[in-house]
């Protein structure tokens, strides 16, 4: 903790960065996470004591930093991570929420889960192995989920004599692949998580490297997306009507601005009805404001009493989305029951849940080489594929490329309420993915 | 009067940047409103501790100027700090809230629960809690749990589906993506909802300071008769302490968490203001639970095991 350097007052105004880590089982991801927490002094002494005790009772000589993050009985028993865990740490410059996603082969869906809210992804590779199939899958998921910043951490540099050419070759190969996926920018950092090189403190053994350490990069990467350029999207969550003596006629539309900026005096329409009005007042949780933007939770009052309810979308009159009933999307299937054409599901988009039918599953994607397997017949857990859906009512859905908030949706099993599938409307990748030569699909190419 | 930006110039760069507390606040309010929109009978667990106090403050903001659309539920262990009960009743009266109390003592008195040999009542809360959820037909139960508290909590979802026994199965959790929360549940099942999932202890204190929220006095340093047990300063009381071999002494202490008196320890402190508390927390080398909770020290998986039984 850095209150001594930052001052208590400064802690109020720090920004928040959500990031995710991805790496396969032996790439040293848990060690990197442990090192980040430990060297940034985010592990407190009683936690460290507990881990030391647990390491000793297991007969291990050294303290196993992975025990800091593996919290469940089954994980400790098997020595693997089975679920996304969220970690929190703070430096003088920033607050961090880390989605610690398992790298084990069955858990693609968990990386998708972690990446869905991340603004940055750290993809770990072993310097001895370079870019392998697993690395390409992780990069593809980051691209698919449109994580704005990607960091390549080339780990175990201590095992390749801290040699610059090893790092340079891996960084170049990865950057070329990433750009074919449409990832705009990659920051490559040579590290040794075990020895602590370039994680929090700059490495004396790699003086050829002039870039930031992992932590320094996390502290300085631009956070947040400038909302000014996006169309405003306001999914109505709840209508506030006190009907009390003090507020007999109050009617406020409560929600969280999903994208863009809203202003008092702005002309808006409610979708799907298309009724128009003007923003009369914006209440930002107790404070009346002229302007509010994503991701603020606010309450809007309009000039006219419109019939607006939960599930409606309030948007600028000159920037409405086109309501559709046929949705083409890339999905990641999450559930153990397969998704098949003809399935009747519920589709949750922003605050609206409607009935939907899976009309077609035109293709399944092999993440490792981005080849398309046509007409797969079904998607099983961890599969990523294209899906065509027909909804019972029109939805004002944006392309995921334009808005992560209003381009994403869930498919839910109406029978038992299970979350089945995560969906992203529109094209899968931003870049020239088609340029990647399609290798034949392999049978086992689907699991992470 | 209106202003253009809430706290202009606070975060670096864009005029649209939001300080992290605003982001956490918006997220928590979003969660409250989702539940209000999708469930029939939600209830807020309220212990009078700082997390539930912040949770209530956020809930009141989320629906203003309308009254809170939820009732409160307090699981009363019978070993509460009197200052906390007084605070609870003050808050309920001030905001005109509805309060349900589930009493561990009543369950012990009529034989449905048996006192544990160690006198700790924290694990006994689960039975009256589940009974109250059942009889109140509550389908969503807000808890103030934070993922930074404990390893098993770090794996908890914001919407946590519980079976008819209130049990948590970490292998059967629903994946949670973006801010799309799935609250579907079968009759008899309910969902535990944790709006403060992404908050840390420091965030909670900073928010209390920023919003000038009143808290029970025992969070501030005060002189108190305490005795040492299992490395913690406990307060003497009818719950069964101290034993003859546990001498009492008067010390300047405060509480970092508020729970059952039998297992919640005080810490040595002279922090008399919120600012001093924040400085103390920021410099502390101990976690909140490590410093003050006996029940989490029972085993490496104590929290996970209790959650499987229906604890929150």
- Looking at CATH, the homologous superfamily of the largest domain in chain B is HUPs
Which sheet architecture does the biggest sheet of chain A show? Answer: 6 strands, mixed
What structural class is derived from the secondary structure elements of chain A?
alpha+beta
Question: Largest interface: which pair?
Answer: A-B, 91 and 80 residues
- Separation, N- and C-terminal Cα atoms of chain B: 43 Å
Reported by name, the CATH topology of the largest domain in chain B is: Rossmann fold
Could you give the distance between the termini of chain A? 36 Å
How many extended strands of chain B? 10
Read across the widest sheet of chain B, the strand sequence of neighbours is: 3-2-1-4-6-5
The main sheet of chain A orders its strands as: 2-3-1-4-5-6
Pfam family, one (chain B): PAPS_reduct
Organism (chain B): Streptomyces marincola
GO molecular function (chain B): ATP binding; sulfate adenylyltransferase (ATP) activity
Keywords (chain B): ATP-binding, Nucleotide-binding, Nucleotidyltransferase, Transferase
